[in-house]
Write a structure and sequence with these properties.
157 residues; seven-stranded mixed beta sheet; Aminopeptidase; alpha+beta
Length: 157
């Protein structure tokens, strides 16, 4: 059986775009369109975001990103694993890859936004050390948004 691997990719990678389209389609099944925060790839700031794609062999099965915020804070964005591959460990591998890269880039706090219609993500984030915080930034007025953060700890030497 092929192993799952996670690779950093550029913002214009075709596998990344397909996975994000799949994520957006799934979000539309769960939330009204006005409550979905999408990613505009034509925005020049998108190049500041660090993206990753998970593969099962050579098949893309998941993705995630880290977007710089202010100071030592970053935001976990576009985190997604295809339904047939949930429970495979892919999400944990993507998260670990992104957190390790965030630490290397000087970030010490990762924030994220999710919602009540994604109970599997709520469980996953809690299991991985994220705790609920007040809504922040663009999510402040979105009542279906739930925000979380985690303080990253450098690996012990």
């Amino acid at each position: 059986m092929p192993l799952i691997s996670v690779h950093s990719v550029s913002y214009d990678h075709p596998h990344l775009h397909q996975l994000i389209r799949n994520l957006d389609e799934e979000l539309l099944e769960r939330y009204p369109p006005e409550e979905i925060f999408t990613l505009d790839f034509s925005d020049p700031h998108v190049q500041e975001i660090s993206f990753a794609v998970a593969y099962l062999g050579d098949m893309p099965i998941g993705c995630g990103a880290i977007r710089p915020l202010e100071g030592e804070e970053a935001e976990l964005k576009r985190f997604f694993v295809e339904r047939p591959h949930r429970g495979s460990g892919a999400a944990a591998l993507i998260l670990r890859h992104l957190e390790e890269n965030a630490l290397k880039d000087g970030y010490r706090i990762i924030k994220l936004e999710t919602g009540p219609e994604q109970p599997e993500s709520l469980r996953f984030y809690a299991k991985n050390g994220y705790y609920e915080i007040p809504r922040f930034g663009p999510y402040t007025e979105c009542h279906s948004s739930m925000c979380f953060e985690k303080r990253l700890q450098p690996a012990s030497a």
